[in-house]
Amino acid sequence: MYPVSDRFLARLAESHRVATSVQLFTTDGRTLELDHIGGSVTVDRSQAIRRTCSVTCPDPALIPRSPADQLAVYGARLRISRGVYYGDGTSELVPVGLFRLDSVDGDVNEGPVTLTGKDVSAFIADDKFTTPYLASGTVVSAITALVQRSIPAAEIVSTITDIAIGRRTYDVEADPWAACVEIAAAAGADVFVNADGAFTISTLPDLATATPVWDVAAGEGGVYIRASRGMTADSVYNGVLARGENTADNVPPVQALVVDSDVNSPTYWGGPFGRRPWFYSSPTLITTGACTSAAALKLALKRAPNATGDFSSLPNPALEPGDVLRVIHPDDTRELHQVASFSVPLDSGDFPITTISAKEDS
């Protein structure tokens, strides 16, 4: 979860006035604070480009009408924040994303105007290779080179134990951001743009050991609104075999099988669910350890549909995908949920959260 004060979290459960900010950074160096009347930021771990936004503004002057206006907009960026007013003249804002402005659309005379954007990993994804590209070195150095190839000043934040990768040549037209995702998997990690706009390499917290960052509780003083639970076997796998074969580095083939080994899990490998393996291969994997890390990462995704939770709470813009929440239902049953996606409104709207896994909490 994005660092916030205890006062901020307590205020979320109280009646409060919402504070929001939308800043437009134009390509000619101006910073404009945009008046806005609505919108939202969607954050989804399952998407390669994790954050997207839509902002509604009342001023039709934002619609570019001349070549100069268009030059100022194409490549412009939006920084969006949401927080709370405390009622004593102070407020606390939390960033929810830095976005490339992709479209501006609306009534040219009366408005409103809708601005949409994707987080800045879209710059990397769109900068397709025009010549074959060789990735090598370590996970962090290879991702850094790919990101800074498109955005030289990009900030890279890594919390992983760095490892070497096998050399990997990407073809013309290949997606450099997809290459970053593949390389991160060699360390069992995700790569994404965080709320501050920094490119981040990190592993998913373990639901079994992670400390919950927020309680979503029903009743007086709580933020719980409603919830549902579901289970499905569709597209669910309980084992992943990750393989690596790299002739460029003259490395012998390596592989590792990671399975759901929890005997209490409904998808336990060899239990009533049966054995349903999924397969992943990449030349970046040159050790058994890297195969194991990649397989564990993919298994977390492939098991995810088995147990899901969808619930709504009062909005908390500080959440991040992967955060572990403690949900306390009206009947006082308790569950731990791991956040997969959510949508932050820029008004007083609902705050739906989808989780990738859930288990009972003692």
From TrEMBL:
Pfam families linked to this entry: DUF5047
Domain DUF5047 positions: 39-166
InterPro entries linked: DUF5047 (IPR032490)
Name of the protein: DUF5047 domain-containing protein
UniProt organism field: Streptomyces kaempferi
